[in-house]
Each structure stands twice: as C-alpha cells, then as structure tokens.
Design brief:
The chain is mainly α. It has helices at about 95-100, 105-110, 135-140, 160-185, 190-215, 220-225, 250-255, 300-310, 320-325, 335-345, 355-360, 375-385, 395-400, 410-425, 445-450, 455-460; strands at about 45-50, 65, 120-125, 125-130, 265-270, 275-280, 470, 485. A hairpin with a 2-residue loop joins β3 and β4. The N and C termini lie far apart (about 50 Å). The protein binds protoporphyrin IX containing FE and calcium ion.
Length: about 525
Amino acid sequence: MQWGQIITHDMSMQAGGTQSKKHPTRCCTDDGRLIGLDTAHKTCFAIIVPPHDPAYSQVGTECLNFVRTLTDRDSNCQYAGGPAEQLTVVTSYLDLSLVYGNSIQQNSDIREFQGGRMIVEERNGGKWLPLSRNVTGDCDAVDSSEVCYRSGDVRVNQNPGLAILQTVLLREHNRIADALAALNPHYDDRTLFQESRKINIAQYQQISYYEWLPIFLGAENMLKNRLIYKAPGGSYVNDFDLNIDPSVLNEHATAAFRYFHSQIEGRLDLLSEMRTVLGSLTLSDWFNRPGIIEVGDNFDSLTRGHATQPEELTDINFDRQIKHFLFRRNMPFGSDLRSLDIQRNRDHGLASYNDMREFCGLRRAHSWEDYSDLISVPIIEKLKSLYHSHEDVDLTVGGSLEAHVSGALAGPTFLCILTEQFYRTRVGDRFFFENGDKITGFTPDQLVELRKASMARLLCDNGNRITSMQPEAFRTVSGSNPIMPCTNIAQVDLTKWIDQKPYATADPSAHYGRK
Ligand code: HEM
Ligand SMILES: [Ca+2]
C-alpha cells in the first residue's frame, strides 16, 4: 500500500465535486426522487436515503445529489494501467491561491495592475472583493444585483466565515502593497505585487504552522516530527527536499482533514466591540449568499463573533445546519455534509480504515473487538449493525471515531495522515517562508518580523473598525488570553523591507551571475 495522491499541481479542491453550490449535474429530481440509472449522467453516484431516516423521511426525500469527482480517465491523461486518480483544480502548496488564483489567467482577472494591488471594489464606504460576473451561477442569489464574489478560489461564497477570511487576506495584500510603495518609491507594479504576495503568503504560513495547526496536531507532535521549530528567532530552516512530493494526499483531503467539519457551528454570533451579543445568523440561511457580510456593521460583528464563540466539539456529532440543511436555499431540508464525506471516500476509493491503521503503524484488527483499543465498545456495537465486516469500515468513519491523541484534536490514524501531509507541504515547498535560499528567501531581519504575524493582528488591521482582539485569536478569550487594544498586539515591521539598491528584476540574469 502507498499514499494516494490527488493529481495537480491551499489544499486541493477536487474537480467537479459539490464544493459549494448545487451541482449542475442532477442525479435526483427536484423533489428528492432518484433518477433512473439509465437516464442519470454517468458521473452520478446519488446517495440513497433510507425510508426511516429521521430527518429526510419527514419530507419524503429518498435521494441526495452526488456527482463523482473527475479523474484522469475523464480527461484522457490516465497513468498507464494504474487505477483512476482524482484530479484537483487548485495548487497544493500553501501559496494563498485562494487570494491570487491558480493560474496566470485567474490572477490577471483579479489584479489591479497598479501599485502592486489586487482589485477591490468600494461599496458603502468599504473595500470589498470584486463582484462575480455570473452572480446567479456562482451564488444562490435571488436577483443579479445581489453581492456575489470573484476571487482566487470558487468556494469564496460558500459560507460567511470564509468570505470574511478571503476579504481579510485580500485587504492585507493591499495594505502591504501600499506600505511597500511608500517605503520603496522606485518599485514598479510588478515588484510591489510579487513582494506583497510573498509577505502575505509568509504570514499565512507562519499563522497556519505556528498558531493554527498546533491546536489541531499538538505542538509537541509537530516539533517531534519537524513540522515546526522551537524559538527559531531569525534563523533559517533549510529543510527543502526535492524528493518530497508536496501534492495533497487523497487520504488527507477526502478523510482526515474533513474530520474538522465536526467543529462547524451553525449559529454565527454578531458581537459589538464590547463583545456583547447583538444577534446571530443561521448558517443555512447564508450558504452562497455572502452579501450579508457587507450589511451594516456585520463584517466587524461577525469577525468578532467568529473569534469569540467556541467551535463545536471535534467529535462524532455534526451540526444540523450542515447535516440536514447544507445548501438548502429556501427549502425545508438541504444536503448532508457528513453523507457527502462518506460517499466521497467511496467515490475516491480510499483504503479501508483497517488498512490505513496498519499503514500508520497501528495494530491491524482481525475482529470487531480489536478496534476497542481506539474506539469505544458502544460505538463498535453500532458499527457492527451498519457494516457487514470490520474490514468494510470506511476510513472517514473509523478515523473519526478514535479517541484523540493527547494534545491533539484527532485520533492516531487521522493524526498520522495530517502529520504526513503537513510535513510534505512544508518540506516539499522550496519557497516555504523559513527557507534561507539566497535569492528567494527572506533576510534574517525580515524573518524575525514575519514570525510576529498573528491572526489577531490580521483581523485588527483588516476589519472595518475593529479596535481590540485577544492575542491568540484561534483560542477563546480568557484570563491568559484577554481582549486588548489592537495597538498592543505585535505587528510585522515592514521597514525591514526597505530596499536600498535599485531593484534587480530589470536584469534577471544578474541574480544568477551570468553575463
Ligand atoms: C461552514 C463551514 C464549511 C462548510 C459549509 C463546508 C462544506 C464542504 C463541502 C460541501 C465540501 C465538498 C463535499 C463533497 O462534495 O465531497 C467540503 C470539502 C472539504 N472541506 Fe469543508 N466545509 C466547511 C468547513 C471546513 C473546515 C473548517 C475544514 C477543515 C479545517 C474543511 C475541510 C474540507 C476539506 C479538506 C474538503 C475537501 C476539499 C477537496 O479536496 O476538494 N471544511 N466542505
Ligand atoms: Ca462536533
């Protein structure tokens, strides 16, 4: 057995799946009935709802739409004789492709080509993501005047939290570009764009690896496996390895990383600067309707809400908003994210839970009872009633039932996959921000600054009028993580990017010492 790779070249987006809106290919009728196999599109793999389903039986839904991910077979580029491999349409590096796009063409469509900036549009005194050119296609818009965004990633409109994050990262790019333009008046648009992008990506990698991932993977586990380093100061980590394939593991994108769907909270609080609750939104009212973030003070209040209200537990329970009401538009029920995850596991033909356990160095189970080292007995009893054999348990199911490793938010099998992925994502990236490459790396002075980047500072700098935040924005407010004025939160000092020399891009050969 070996790791399964999703083919490409932020973390994968499977081609042709159900990432955001309703898929144009319909495998069920509008009222949730199955379309006969003879008439359904060949990529259909509809989810059959049992008649006794506690939610869907209320409205007689017997079929949930599911369209198979496109593979190399569909695109006539199949590896000789190998099994079908899923295709992805985004880059697999942590390169903020969600902001900058996945190709030169996508990038050109969202760049301003002035002052190094990305396109933002002014509405109601604020700077927002540019509008989609196909509002009713990209969003669940009631009419074509509704706000619907265009960005580097088509999922931007999927939920309000994501639209906020996309906006914050876009504004951050322009904030950096404006600062660099003031510090280096001799820089042209292209230099400003590339340098700002490079800083924005570095901050994003710093935040992802040093602030966010430790909560999920455990800081000790990350240190031990060389995903992060202790107190690096201004020193480089030159761990780039040409032999490490940085593309996204199928087991990661289709099982392990989706486990965090369990954390999704269906109620989105709106909070004042004093952190009093002004109201709340219901997630399923706002799938693919991102315009809500531009209404009144919602951008700031929702941002404070996301930073303040706790996530749901990482466990076997999933919020009704995604379990019954995903993309429901104004219908009483929608789709079920948990079912989609399980069906996607089968669509991609992932290895079984038992095989993956063994591959990760855990004990292979030879009977149901052998799972009791990691899964509780009542849950094993439930599994027995659902699967014919202990060998049949899907990876996405078994992995999410394991007791968590101490200090992490996943059991050993998922943690093995997540750790392998995030090791590859850094070590396989020759531009990872901690690398000391003479041409592409940062100076030690700049690295010291980048290591001060935080989610709190990003939210402070790119809200409309957010003036306070807790320093660890991914953690709830507490005595040791109190709300404080933004001015007290460390800032990346961009004066370390003052470039004394005339910039050398006019003569790229100068970099390589060629004549
Ligand atoms: C409101 C929040 C979210 C919603 C509504 C949502 C919804 C979805 C949907 C509909 C899909 C595609 C399902 C399919 O057809 O196979 C998906 C994929 C995925 N989601 Fe989420 N998700 C959310 C948050 C998250 C979070 C917080 C994480 C991880 C921390 C996550 C990780 C993933 C991953 C890894 C995939 C597979 C992406 C790919 O490879 O194509 N999602 N999500
Ligand atoms: Ca949960």
